[in-house]
Design brief:
Elements lengths: L1 E2 H8 L3 H9 L7 E2 L6 E3 L1 H15 L4 H7 L4 H33 L8 E5 L2 E10 L5 H7 L4 E4 L9 E6 L5 E5 L2 E8 L5 H14 L2 E3 L3 E7 L5 E14 L22 H7 L1
Antiparallel strand pairs: 1-3, 2-3, 4-9, 5-7, 5-8, 6-7, 6-11, 9-12, 10-12, 11-12
Length: 268
């Protein structure tokens, strides 16, 4: 038989690990010297230790190993299959996290877009014809804590339609429950630049825009202001490629025209 230090050297385990295995009842010594307190391990203990370490290398936790070490082989193999599936799910999640981190590092914008589901929203709006995004600054100044909507599926190359929430008067507009990509705009980032970066982010992630972008201008009692952009996306289909994208009257160089209420609802 071997003392604990000898067994540790033979197998590559640590004495601390062997004591822990003893404490949880996973690997008890073959004998304990009542006078010195030394732990002694025999061949059966050596074989059991090697099985414990082998199952650990397969990804099983000590709790799982305690349940399986004396179980039939078919049960052990099923547990290993489940462990492999869980490991692969975690690898996929880590790959996705790494992709998001690399995407952030590859762009100069400090945006951190998030996908979320939002509920139905009812607004009273005044519709606008806009020839350039810069015109929206005056609209926002007139309604500093309001909501602005823009009907765009890409960066504008001419006139486009917009609407501002008047807070009580104007045409009724209902935005249905939808999946959106949301970005909180840092104070140092201009809204136009943020919108450009957000559209570029959507394009890189092959997400199709499914309605008006909502731009909320929010403030609190302390006078702090923040702008939140929400772009609804179609989760059932990817964005069209530039060569295959259908012509969009809201983002073409043609002169902007007034849309009908029915068309506006279709875009929303």
């Amino acid at each position: 038989m071997w003392r604990i230090g000898e067994l540790a050297r033979m197998t590559g385990a640590t004495e601390r690990a062997l004591r822990h295995y003893d404490k949880i009842g996973l690997l008890v010594p073959t004998a304990i010297d009542r006078t010195s307190g030394y732990r002694w391990y025999g061949v059966a203990a050596l074989s059991r230790l090697e099985r414990i370490r082998g199952l650990q290398r397969l990804g099983l936790s000590l709790r799982d190993i305690a349940d399986l070490i004396d179980a039939p082989e078919v049960q052990v193999r099923q547990a290993v299959r489940e462990t492999v599936a869980d490991i692969r799910r975690r690898i996929t999640a880590l790959d996705q996290t790494a992709d998001r981190a690399e995407d952030y590092l590859d762009t100069p914008a400090p945006l951190l877009p998030q996908q979320a589901t939002v509920g139905t929203r009812h607004l009273r709006v005044r519709h606008l014809e806009v020839t350039h995004p810069g015109e929206l600054a005056a609209v926002c100044a007139a309604y500093p804590t309001s909501t602005l909507l823009t009907w765009l599926r890409a960066l504008p190359h001419g006139g486009f339609n917009a609407a501002v929430d008047t807070g009580g008067t104007g045409e009724r507009l209902t935005l249905p429950a939808r999946t959106v990509v949301r970005a909180v705009i840092p104070p140092a980032t201009g809204i136009i630049d943020a919108g450009q970066h957000l559209f570029a982010w959507l394009h890189r992630h092959h997400l199709a825009i499914a309605g008006p972008t909502v731009e909320d201008h929010l403030s609190d009692a302390d006078g702090d202001h923040v702008t939140v952009l929400e772009v609804p996306i179609d989760t059932t289909r990817p964005a069209a490629t530039p060569t295959g994208r259908p012509k969009d009257p809201l983002s073409t160089p043609d002169k902007a025209r007034e849309t009908t209420p029915q068309e506006r609802m279709e875009h929303s």
